[in-house]
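Please predict the structure of the following assembly.
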Amino acid sequence: MIANVPSAILLGVDGSPVSVEVHASNGVPGFSIVGLPDAAVRESRDRVRAALLTSGFKWSSKRVTVNLAPSAVRKAGAALDLPIAMGMLIASEQIDPEAVTGCAFFGELGLDGSLRYFPGVIPLVDVVGTPKVVVPAVCLDEASVVPAKEVYGATSLRQVVDALNGGGGWVLPGSSSTPGQEHEDFPDLADVRGQPVGRRAVEVAAAGGHHLLLIGPPGSGKTMLATRLPGLLPPLTFDESLSVARIRSASALSQDGAYLPSRPPFRAPHHSATAVSIVGGGSTWLRPGEISLAHRGVLFMDELGEFDRAVLDSLREPLEEGVVRISRVRVSAVLPARFLLVAATNPCPCGEGMTPGSCRCTPRMRERYLARLSGPLLDRFDLSVSLAKPQVDDLLCMVPGESTERVASRVAAARDRAHERGVSCNAVIPSWALDQLAPMSPDALSLIERRLRSGVLSARGMDRIRRVALTIADLAQDGALIGAEHVAEALQLRAARSIVRTDER
Amino acid sequence: MDETRVAAGALASLPGITPARLKMLMGGFDPEEAAERVNGGRHPADPQGRWIGLCGRDRMAVLGERCLESAVDVQVLGMDGYPPSLSNDPMAPAVIFVGGRKERLGDLANASMVCTVGTRAASPYGMKVAYELGKELATAGISVVSGLADGIDSAAHRGFLAPFPDMPSPATGISAHTGHIFHTAFPVAVVAGGPDVAYPRGSGDLFDAVWDAGVIISEVPPGVKAQRWRFVARNRIMAALSDIVIVVESHTSGGSLHTAGYALRQGKPVGAVPGPINSSASSGCNELIQSGKARLVRGTADVVSLLEADPSVSGSRDKSKKKKKIVVVQSGGAAGEASCHGGDQDLRFIVLGQLGFQPLTLEEVVVLSGRPVGKVSLCLELLADEGLAREQAGSWTRC
C-alpha cells in the first residue's frame, strides 16, 4: 500500500511544498526515511512510533519507506511528524485514504500523540496546493490568517483521525488561545521635550522613508526619538501586513498573539549582533535576520560605530535592493528586507564631541572610532542630524510637545502625495525621474547651484537633497515646485554627516 | 663622531636608564672612563653592576653606526656644541640626541625661542589659534619650540612652516628693517622618542618637514620608541630651551601645564591664550591667567611684548627682529550691512545676532530664534552664501 500526503518545509520565509510518500510492503520489518532529512526529521521516526502506539494505533510490522519528495532538497524541522504519521496510517490501512483527500498536514508530535507548535505556520499553510489544511490547535489562529484556505485544528493525533472519520469535531478558530492582541503601543512623540531639529528629522524620515542618522552625546534623546518613529508611519496595508506576518511566523515570533499586525515592526538589535543574525542565514533552515524582521518597519541600530564592520557592510545591498539574497552551499533564499534604517552614534568615544572644547578625545581616537562607519554606508543616510542634550527649560516645561497623532496625520498626507506620483515614498524615486517628479523653483535652483559650484555638494548628494526637499514640500502641502526653504532645510538636515565624514556633503 | 660622544651616547642607551641615573654615571668621570667603568662593573654609582658588559666597545660601535645611519648627533652637557640655554637649567639632560639641521643647534642661543604647547584633544578654536600663532611667529622671525604631539603642538608647527613652502630653509628671509638676510627662525621639536622616530603615527609629513627645516632634540637614542614617562621630561626640556612659554589650550590636568610650571620655576614668562569659560579644553589656560601665573595672550603682538619684557633676554640679541611690527589681522563682521536676497529680514537679524565665534548647532539657532527649522535653515544658507556665516561639522559660526 502506498500513501501520498501533502505538506511543506520552510526555506527562508517561504514554504516549499513537500509530498510525504509512505510505502509499506512485505519483507524484513523496518522503517527508513529518505529524501535528505536532517536530524530532526530522522528522529521523527521515534516520535511517530510512540505517538501512534499511545494513540491506540498499530505500528506496522512491514517494511516501511518514507520518501520526502522532491528528494534533492534538504528537509529540516519537526513539522513533518504529522504528515508522516498520517502516511503510516494510510499505508497500514488504519484510515480510509478517501478521508484525507485534498488535505495537507503539519505538526510536531509528542510521544503521547499530542500536537505541538512549529515555526513558519503562515508560509507553510500558504504554499500547499490543497484546499484543506490540518494544523495543531495552537497554530490554528495563526494559520487562519492565510486567505483562501480551510484550516482545521486538532490537539492530538487521535482527534485528527476521529474528525477525519466523521467521529468527532475539530478545534474551532479563536477558541484555543487568546485572540491576536496587538500590544505594540508606540510611545508618543509628545514625551519629547524641545529637540526641534530631532523631531523634525524624525517627521521627515517617516514621511519620505529616508534613512536617518542621529549623532549626539549620551542622553541627547537619540533612542527616545528613534522609538517614536514607527508610530509616525502609516498603518500597514493588508498585503504589507501579511508579508510581515509571514516573516514573523517563519522566525517563530508570532506565538504571542498579533498574527496580522497593523503597525509597522520596530527592531533594535544590540550592537553585539553577528552578521548572520542581522541579515539572516543558518546552514539548513535559513532564518530571517533582523533586517527582514524589520521589513516594512524600522530597524534601529543604536551605537552604530560599535557594530562589527562586517555587519555594517552587509547592510549595504539590502538597503539598496529591499531584499537580501542569502546563499549557502545547499540552499539559497531571497528574503524581503525593505526597512527604514535609523542609526544613532556618538560623535566620538567620549561622546562630548559636539560641544567644542569639552571633548577629551584626541583626533586619532576620533578617527579610529569613526573609521568603522564606512563611507558607502553613510552615503545611504538621506538625513543626518546632530542632537544636543535638551535644554533645562524644556525638560522642566510642563507643556508637552506635538503629539504623535498630529505629526502622523501630516506624514500620512505627505505619503498620499507620494502615492499620487506613483512611488511608495520619496526616498525610492530614481534619479532619472527627479526632474519630472521634483521640479525646483528658480530660488531653490540657484541655492543648489552655488553649492555645486563651490564643491560642498556632489551630484549624488544633490539627488538626495532633492528627494528630501520634496518630502519637506509634501509635509508643508506646498505647491508643485520645491522652494528654496525646502532645499535649505534638506541641506541642514544632512549637514551633520560632516561630523562623521569630512570629505564631501 | 668622536669616541667621547659615542661613549656618552652608549651610556644614555643603557637599558633602564633615567636622566637622574645618567647624571650620576657621568658625574666625576669623562664619558669614556665612565663607560669603561660601567662596563667593567667598577663604577661607584653602579655598585650592583647591573650594566656589566652592556657598555663595551661593541655596543659603542653599534650606537655610532646607528647615529651615523640616521644622521643623529650626540651632544654632551659641558662639552662644545651643547645648547647653552639648556645647560643653564639645573636639571639639564646629561646627553641629548639631535636630528634635523644640526648646525642650527648653535643658533638656539641667538634666536628668540617661543614654546607653544597645548592639549592633544584641541578644539577647532585652539587649533586655529595655534596655527595662526605659528604662522605669524615665523614671519616675525621668532623660532617655535614644540613637542610634535597631536593637536596644538602640531598645529603650531604646521602654521610655522606654512609661510615657507620652499623647504628646507623656512625662515630664511630678508629682514624688513635692515635688509639683511636672517637665518634665525626655525622650528625646534623636542620629542619623547628617538629623534628619528616619527611620533605620533600618521604625523610623518610634519615630522619630515621639521627635520628638514629645523632641529629635533631627544634624550633617547635613535630608533627607540617613546615611553610614557619621557613626555614629562620632554616638557622640561622644551621650557628650558625657550625664552617664554605660551599655552594655547589646555585642560586643567593637561601635560602642557607641566611645561608652564617648569618655565615659571626657571623664571621664564608664561603666556596663555584665553578661551570660552565653558570650554573644558581652555580651562587650564583660563586658570593660569586667573591665578596670575600667566599673562593673557591675544595674538602674536602679545607674544612679542612678552619676549621684550623678558628680563633674561640679553641685550646682545638683535632687537630689530623682535620689534618688528606685526600686523595681526583682525577678523570682524560687516554684520547686517550686506544686502539681503530675500528671506526674512527679522529672522536674519536675530540669527546674525546669535552667531559668534563659539560654534552653534542648527538646533541651538532654532531654539534661540524660536522659528521653524525650514526658515532658520534658509536664513543660514543665505548667510553662508553672502560669506557672513560658516558651517563646519554641523555647527555655525560668524565669518
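Chain B has three domains: 1-69, 103-323, 345-398. Residues 167-183, 313-342 of chain B have pLDDT under 50 and may be disordered.
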